[in-house]
Amino acid sequence: MTAAARFFGQAVERLDARAVLDILVIAALLYYALSLLRGTRAVQMALALALLVAIFYGARWARLVMVETLLGLLLPYFVIALVVLFQPEIRRALAGVGQNAFWQRWNFHRVTETQDDVVMAVTFFSQNHTGALVVMEREVGLKTYIESGIPLDATLSYDLLLTIFRPGSPLHDGAAILQGNRVAAAACFLPLSLNPMLTTQLGTRHRAAIGVTEESDAVVVVVSEQTGSIALATAGQIEQHLTPEQLGKRLAEQFARRRVGAGAGELTGAGMAFLRGWVLHNLGLKVVALALSFLLWAAFASEARAATGFSAPLESHTSASTRVPGPAALR
Predict the structure, then answer these.
(1) Do both 84 and 203 map to the same domain?
(2) In terms of domains, do 222 and 135 share one?
(3) In this structure, is residue 40 part of a structural domain?
């Protein structure tokens, strides 16, 4: 207990402005990684990796040479295995850079008419138990999935959606992908979600809707052919049993953008509200990331200090007692 208190006390004494900035940057990266891992199959592997790292530093502190050496050899291969096993999560993380609410406030797309057409068509599908899968593209392009279907590049309308998903139509099976107010393609193939946390009651349409939102920031509307229920999938999550009114409200929230020509006072108030919401959102996860960042910084700082303290006497001893005579002295 005394050693731990001494360790943290020394770490706090070494804190300065540069160290605080270092801790905050690493905390932000850890928070982003933890928010992506939460609720996925990568959580168990991440916990195992954290446990191995903790054992490694514990073995170094206790001077267990064999344990430290073995873990030092195995950890790099373990990291490579994580990269190979969790390619979808890593790809989603890279695609999600810059897709947070702050950056999305600066886009100016008018999608009200598009939403109205989609809501009216989905209402008809729900009443008649017609299966439908409508993908609405946002910032991340869906060209890969568009190329898997039949290109249309047609102006979006209520009648066009009814024609696409009419039972017996060649375009009925698969997804229709919307780009703004245009239907880019229909009968498109989407990746199925492999998330083991999903209920087994979800069918292929719903799993495809979740799968494409795991790979991009798209918004997907699903209508069940069996029950006629309406669902909305975003960011790897799905909300089921929506009414048409609820669907319209959710779509408006998802595609909400900062209005052009807003006054300075309104922008300031919106900015403060956004900042307050960002601080309170996932507060527990932010605290965990900050604590982990501080522990990592303290461990690395302690290790760097020990290495510096060990090398200084060696240099002094070398310069004082083992000085090599020059050519003049030899003559």
Answers:
(1) no
(2) yes
(3) yes
134-155 core/surface letters (b: 16 or more CB in 10 A; e: else):
bbbbbeeebeebbebbeebeee
| Domain identity same for 143 and 216 | yes
pLDDT in tens, 92-121: 666 655 544 444 444 444 455 678 899 999
Q: Tell me, what's the pLDDT at 108?
A: 41
SS3 155: strand
In-domain check, residue 314? no
Residue-level length of the chain: 331
Return the DSSP state at 274. H
Please give the DSSP secondary-structure letter assigned to residue 224. -
Looking at the fold, whether 118 and 250 belong to one and the same domain comes out as yes
Count of structural domains within the chain: 2
Q: How far is it, in rounded angstroms, from Cα 269 to Cα 246?
A: 27
C-alpha R_g of the chain: 28
Structure-model confidence comparison of residues 320 and 9, the more confident one: 9
Q: Which domain holds residue 244?
A: 112-254
Q: Other CB atoms closer than 10 Å to residue 244's CB: what's the count?
A: 15
Listing from the earlier edge strand, what are the strands of the sheet with 175-179? 150-155, 182-188, 175-179, 132-136, 219-223, 230-234, 237-242
277-306 tens-digit pLDDT: 556 666 777 888 888 888 777 777 666 665
What are 21's strand-pairing partners?
A: none
Q: Where are the alpha helices (DSSP H) in the chain?
A: 2-13, 17-37, 42-62, 65-85, 87-95, 101-104, 112-127, 143-147, 158-164, 204-215, 244-254, 264-280, 283-321, 327-330
Contacts of residue 171, Cβ cutoff 8 Å, sequence gap at least 6: 150, 163, 164, 165, 186, 187
Q: Encoding tokens for residue 51?
A: 């446990």
The CATH number of the domain holding residue 160 is 3.40.1700.10
Tokens standing for residue 5 = 């208190």
How far apart are the C-alpha atoms of 114 and 22, rounded to whole Å?
A: 45
Other C-beta atoms closer than 10 Å to the C-beta of 212 total 26
Within 13 Å of residue 164, how many CA atoms lie on the same side as its CB?
Answer: 31
pTM beyond 0.85: the answer is no
